[in-house]
Amino acid sequence: MSNVILKASNIYRDYVTKGSMFKKTDVVQALKGISFDVIEGETLAVVGESGCGKSTLARILTLIDAQTAGELEIEGTDININVQKPTSEMRQRVQIVFQNPYGSLNPRQKVGEILEEPLVINTNMRSDERRKLAMEMLAKVGLEPVHYGRYPHMFSGGQRQRIAIARALILRPKILVLDEPVSALDLSVQAQILNLLADLQDEFNLSYIFISHDLSVVKYIADRVMVMYFGEIVEQNTREEIFTNPQHDYTKTLLAATPRATVESIKKRLGVA
Ligand SMILES: Nc1ncnc2c1ncn2[C@@H]1O[C@H](COP(=O)(O)OP(=O)(O)O)[C@@H](O)[C@H]1O
Ligand SMILES: [Mg+2]
């Protein structure tokens, strides 16, 4: 049985930019009523070009931003932050990793503080318990105990993304939204981070919503793919179907713009077995 862990129904998001004496008030429909399920333990890739609404969706799914209309159900619980402030327990279930780990990590905090901040905010753990958990998470993302006392600027891009992943997982969420998590990294580093994500997914039985504009990465990691175009889902299907039998013209265009590649050749390119 496949369990639906997240259900989005008819999600809309409008951005209203306030006008002035000289400018009319403008409405951007970033999401135009999109619906989809995420199955427990799967990787659902979200693809589409810049501006199609991927990050808007990411912020709504992680309860950072509210939808204009539509319903969101996480692990069987309806949640609408327009109506009710999410409980911290609810917030813990879905976490996010952004494209640019430098921007998302406070440069004035040491790694230990960065990792423990969610624990300070959401739990009553003692400081020694927090430290223990932070140390465990560091190891799980392939970092060293000595990194606990260092600042973000002392790390490479790939290491910083490992820190961001550790922070996202420290509250043991069930769902991780990854918004272009490897797009800013060198190819060889991309492969390492993708492998790490695959290992962590197995270990914690995580469901991933993996946002990317790079179809070769998607082809490597996705179970299912959802194609977005100007705030709408034009097609969603298994990875196999999307890549071998695309139905929508826009999907075909996206595929045509991607170098022809098999899963094998991508693995080779990324340097993974
Ligand atoms: N805070 C905002 N205010 C106004 N418009 C926004 C805001 N955030 C995003 N948009 C607009 O919404 C649309 C979708 O943006 P976004 O979700 O960032 O797309 P993507 O992540 O796919 O590039 C774009 O037209 C963008 O300009
Ligand atoms: Mg984006």
Model description:
The protein is α/β, with parallel strands linked by helices. The protein is globular and about 50 Å long. The longest helix has 18 residues, at 187-204. A hairpin with a 2-residue loop joins strand 4 and strand 5. Helix 4 (111-122) packs across helix 5 (127-140), helix 4 (111-122) packs parallel to helix 6 and helix 5 (127-140) crosses helix 6 (157-169). Strands 6-7-8-3-9-10 form a 6-stranded mixed β-sheet, with helices on both faces. It has a 4-stranded antiparallel β-sheet with strand order 2-1-4-5, covered by helices on one side. It has one domain (4-270): Rossmann fold (3-Layer(aba) Sandwich), CATH 3.40.50.300. It has helices at residues 54-61, 88-93, 101-104, 111-122, 127-140, 157-169, 187-204, 215-221, 239-244, 249-256, 263-270; strands at residues 4-17, 26-39, 43-47, 69-74, 77-79, 94-97, 175-179, 207-212, 224-229, 232-238. The protein contains 11 helices and 10 strands. Bound molecules: adenosine-5'-diphosphate and magnesium ion (MG). The site of magnesium ion has 2 residues, from helix 1.
Give short descriptive properties of this protein.
binds magnesium ion, Rossmann fold, 6-stranded mixed sheet, binds adenosine-5'-diphosphate, alpha/beta, 38% helix, globular, 11 helices, 4-stranded antiparallel sheet, 273 residues
